[in-house]
Amino acid sequence: MPQTGIINRDIEQVNGTVRVVSGSAKGRPLKSVPGSGTRPTTDKVKEAVFSMIGPYFEGGSTLDLFAGTGGLGIEALSRGMDSAVFVDMEPQSIDTVRANLKATRLEEKAEVYRNDAGRALSAMEKRGRSFDLVFLDPPYRLKHGDELMLAMAQKGLLNKDAVIVLEHESAYGYPEDIVGFYRLRQAVYGETTISIYQYEAARTEETKSGEGGTDESTN
Questions:
Q1: To the nearest whole percent, how much of the chain has pLDDT over 90?
Q2: Which residue, 190, 201, 25, 208, is CA-closest to 108?
Q3: Of 24, 52, 73, 165, which shows the fewest CB atoms inside 10 Å?
Q4: Are 1 and 60 in contact (CB under 8 A)?
């Protein structure tokens, strides 16, 4: 589970190459996705993320749902997460994630899938998977981070007190409270905002029981 803490620097860029800075994969370079179709999380934002949710973890499982290079999930593994699932729709991203996992020697702790977010969540539900830490960094044109969070809760994919790291454009705001979740922290970095939520299973169950046994879902 994520442990609260502060660290001064988590990701550094050396001669134009992003490297994992802390943990078992410290110092290993990460490749970028070829082309311009992927919007990588900047070093400054990565630093902020792990300052707010880490810096280290005592086991647990993580999901990097819009993986890109896989940098966030790989950093979580390096810092103590037991396992990670990486999902992306783009073949070049999948190839990059696999290459970065190999470079950091973390392949045995990872699963990598090419799929869209919705289908991936359904597949993980069937497999009985659940997570302690989730990274959500969808393309900025998509405004469905809250819908994905609700879907994960409904499908039983989140462990008690799971943390969701949602990256989105600053021009768009998500609610402070989403059914079953509350926002722990929020930080704005120019055009990028990081909203960190914690899952409260008890609140979700209370909401369901208050519906009088009906099974209603919002899409």
A1: 64
A2: 25
A3: 24
A4: yes
